[in-house]
Specification:
Length: 202
């Protein structure tokens, strides 16, 4: 008798595990499942007012209408920015293939050189759905501050100076704000996976 009780108990345990797994797989992911960073919320991000390639003043709500990868850089950047922007564009393509509608925004940290036309063309070169934004010194400084971006001029050359800056890409959701950031080491597939998870959880 004890043998049959043991077998029955084992079968029940297997069924419980299987049932739990099935429910877990069927339910929609939560923000925690996607690895939401502890810094998410009001600490990073927020409202901004900048200028797009047409010269129109836009706000964060105008350009962040879907899960959006936001990147701060500058068009004269010789190496880091192009690599990060290309990675984000590749992630957007992967997401599109999976049926996930995601956007990209490039915000310059160098408004003195990056005019509306320049940032627009720069963003377009990476992806047709990438939005390039610039603005006045005060407008850009406010956006930089909101996202806790580190940005500073490296030298005094009036034309060919370089900028030192942080290189995070921020995932921003229209209804939740900033939820996650990506580092340079993250691949397009890794970025796409996590963006898709957050999109499903929202």
């Amino acid at each position: 008798m004890s043998k049959w009780i043991a077998i029955g108990a084992s079968a029940a345990a297997v069924a419980l595990v299987a049932g739990t797994f099935a429910v877990t797989q069927l339910r929609a992911p939560t923000m925690a499942d996607c690895g939401a960073t502890a810094a998410a919320g009001d600490v990073i991000g927020g409202p901004f007012e900048l200028v797009d390639k047409t010269g129109k003043t836009v706000t964060n709500t105008d350009v962040i209408t879907k899960p959006t990868l936001v990147y701060f850089g500058y068009t004269f950047c010789p190496d880091v920015c192009p690599l990060d922007m290309a990675r984000n564009a590749a992630a957007m393509d992967i997401l599109e293939e999976r049926g996930v509608d995601a956007g990209g925004v490039f915000i310059t940290i160098d408004p003195a050189r990056d005019t509306t036309e320049i940032v627009g063309e720069y963003a377009d070169n990476f992806h047709p759905d990438m939005i390039g934004l610039t603005g006045t010194e005060d407008q850009v400084a406010a956006a930089v501050k909101a996202y806790r971006v580190v940005a500073s001029k490296q030298d005094d050359d009036p034309e060919y100076y370089l900028m030192q800056h942080s290189t995070f890409s921020y995932l921003v959701m229209p209804d939740k704000g900033f939820v996650e950031f990506f580092r340079q080491v993250d691949t397009p597939e890794q970025v796409a996976d996590r963006v898709a998870c957050f999109a499903a959880a929202s």
